[in-house]
Write a structure and sequence with these properties.
Blueprint (H helix, E strand, L loop, with lengths): L5 E7 L4 E7 L4 E7 L8 H18 L10 E7 L5 H8 L7 E6 H9 L5 E6 L3 E7 L2 E6 L11 H16 L7 H10 L4 H8 L4 H5 L2 H9 L3 H25 L3 E4 L3 H4 L5 H6 L7 H15 L1
Parallel strand pairs: 1-4, 4-5, 6-9
Antiparallel strand pairs: 1-2, 2-3, 6-7, 7-8
Helix pairs in contact: 3-12, 4-5, 4-9, 8-9
Length: about 290
């Protein structure tokens, strides 16, 4: 196998995809960001996002576009644990010199603990926890927007919309949270809200997360109840992962920092700083795969 001149580590989540480009010595040359890369939701969108993020990283490094063909890419992707989605991606006629992928959990864990045993709690558009035990990943939660992802930004947003619809129907008090949801989406009837969100992506629901957290901090009872319910679940899966790995816990994801104060005290006490980000975790996994050959 031809040795690559450049290496790209990719962290592809439900809202954004970020690539970091490195040279053979491990020097960071550039980074690029694009859209959603959840392969279980849309393989075509994910492929476009992976390609765009690497292209943006190459451009930031001020390298020519043809660098793409001399770059080995290792991507950690949301939805990669779904067999049908992973199978479809393996058939991708990509433009890179090499392309490997695993779940975004795997790269996050590998980077966070530098390949050592440990646990991670990911809270962004989706949510999950995982343990790395002697190189083996064990996942908790992370079942996707339709079936799980409790405590995530998208879950909080969806719960807030459900509450708002019930308030608009007169079944709940039309209080601060319902008013904020209607204002955010500029929808002031149940019909208008359903029409706008009936086919919305998780990221659209996740837009509400900052509003919900703000209202919870201000003491809004409904928002606070949602945040506390989600945080109890996140604490539970974090404890599962910590118990399995026997190691420290790293929390990551776009919503993780904001929700951390609501996690159970023993979970908060176990949190440590990550060693590396998921993009470098992907590079470490790529190096391990190449060394194994």
């Amino acid at each position: 196998m031809t040795q690559s001149t450049f290496y790209a580590g990719v962290d592809g989540g439900g809202t954004k995809c970020r690539a970091e480009l490195y040279d053979a010595a491990g020097n960071l040359l550039g980074a690029g960001i694009s859209g959603s890369a959840n392969i279980a939701r849309s393989g075509s969108v994910a492929r476009e996002s992976i390609l765009a993020s690497v292209q943006h990283a190459i451009a930031e490094a001020e390298l020519p576009p043809e660098t793409l063909a001399n770059t080995a890419v290792y991507a950690g992707l949301a939805g990669a644990n779904v067999p049908s989605a992973a199978g479809a991606l393996r058939n991708w006629q990509h433009p890179f010199q090499q392309f490997h992928f695993t779940s975004d959990l795997h790269t996050a864990l590998f980077g966070a603990h530098g390949g050592a045993n440990g646990a991670v709690l990911v809270v962004g558009t989706g949510s999950c926890a995982a343990a790395l035990v002697d190189g083996t990943l064990v996942q908790y939660g992370g079942h996707g927007f339709l079936l799980g992802d409790k405590g995530s930004g998208a879950w909080l947003g969806k719960q807030a919309v459900t509450h708002t619809l019930e308030a608009l129907d007169g079944l709940q008090e039309f209080g601060g949270l319902a008013k904020a949801v209607c204002q955010h989406y500029q929808c002031h009837s149940a019909v208008a809200l359903v029409d706008k969100l009936n086919h919305a992506s998780p990221g659209v629901f996740g837009e509400l997360c900052p509003l919900i957290l703000q209202l919870a901090h201000q003491g809004d009872a409904t928002a606070l109840a949602l945040v506390e319910e989600g945080s109890r679940y996140l604490s539970a899966i974090a404890r599962q992962a910590m118990g399995k790995s026997g190691g420290d816990l790293v929390i990551t994801g776009g919503v993780a920092g904001a929700l951390a104060p609501w996690l159970d005290p023993e979970v908060q006490a176990a949190v440590r700083e990550h060693q590396f980000g998921p993009e470098w975790g992907a590079i470490l996994l790529l190096r391990a795969a190449q060394e194994a050959k």
